[in-house]
Queue: 2 jobs
Job 1
Amino acid sequence: GAGVSQSPSNKVTEKGKDVELRCDPISGHTALYWYRQSLGQGLEFLIYFQGNSAPDKSGLPSDRFSAERTGGSVSTLTIQRTQQEDSAVYLCASSLRGQTLATNEKLFFGSGTQLSVL
Amino acid sequence: AQTVTQSQPEMSVQEAETVTLSCTYDTSESDYYLFWYKQPPSRQMILVIRQEAYKQQNATENRFSVNFQKAAKSFSLKISDSQLGDAAMYFCAYRDFGTSGSRLTFGEGTQLTVNP
């Protein structure tokens, strides 16, 4: 596609329910990132996928959070047993190779999913 | 661990005037990248400008320029001739020059208001 697409745009759920957030990266981009943006705060790194390598899960806040990337393209972020503190905007980004040595490497962000846990 | 600090939660500027947004960071690395991103109400992060730490010359992109002070670990953004469309949340971000992916560390953001 032309850009990074995320769905749904907004999600309201009840505490304790599971939610799935979807990210469609730019076609051909091998690197994919998930970030969380809580109200009034900057973006917090969650997880990073690079090609077929094992993902960098070091930013996931608890074992209730998981993510997968199927076929090196679409990614799904799953939050189990949602809590009110999970309420935030979840942003996805992709880049061509994910290598910081590439000086022209650029991140492209989606418009995020606003998650509200009641 | 690297940290990025933006000490101005909110800033305002008159249309056509100049405004400077502040950012400081902490790192033990000598090579890295610094960025300013703009986030309008659409939530999509837009890259405004980037600076490679090994370059002494300050980056510029049209009305946007930076003042990069490596020794002071300071990276401010100057917006000249401010326009109504510049109103947004601005984030300063840091990235290692290593090989572990393009993981960014963000500051808390500065909400910029442009008054007509």
Job 2
Amino acid sequence: GAGVSQSPSNKVTEKGKDVELRCDPISGHTALYWYRQSLGQGLEFLIYFQGNSAPDKSGLPSDRFSAERTGGSVSTLTIQRTQQEDSAVYLCASSFRMVTNEQFFGPGTRLTVL
Amino acid sequence: LAKTTQPISMDSYEGQEVNITCSHNNIATNDYITWYQQFPSQGPRFIIQGYKTKVTNEVASLFIPADRKSSTLSLPRVSLSDTAVYYCLVGGPNDYKLSFGAGTTVTVRA
């Protein structure tokens, strides 16, 4: 079946611009997660959704970052006034159960802020 | 999540068995051991998960000794396509904030 998809695959933007990253989870997966992976680094947790609500936003680096999920499916991660340190690969994952360490990851969106 | 320690890199040749050992001295009673694989320009992929003794699936085997302070991921008869970074994670069933360290970069040569 179809896996987690993310778009765009690559995004180059100028410092100060806003960007939106999209995630389509696996159908039927109620939990959705966003992570960030900087070059040569491990994954950094950003936010977790159960359905359309986000019980844990603790990983969002600043108030420039926000995320929403609609219809219990698609999620959008928005970064306002991008900074160079926001450059990274943004990964989305989904899982069937609410809390699990078996998560299915998308291919990621590589964001480059010039 | 419990801290884990694994080798930074390992080299192997096609057809050989690769064993990656992960140390997790502070593993908690309800923690599971999970391994992920990540290819360049892709997201991590779940490989295998276990609690104790041995778990085997079509991709790998996971060996966990009785004290559970370490675990070994075994990849049988590797091919060039097994070249990837392998991550060892330890956490309870409610730990959804996956914490990936640097992982082990496995390079398979012809």
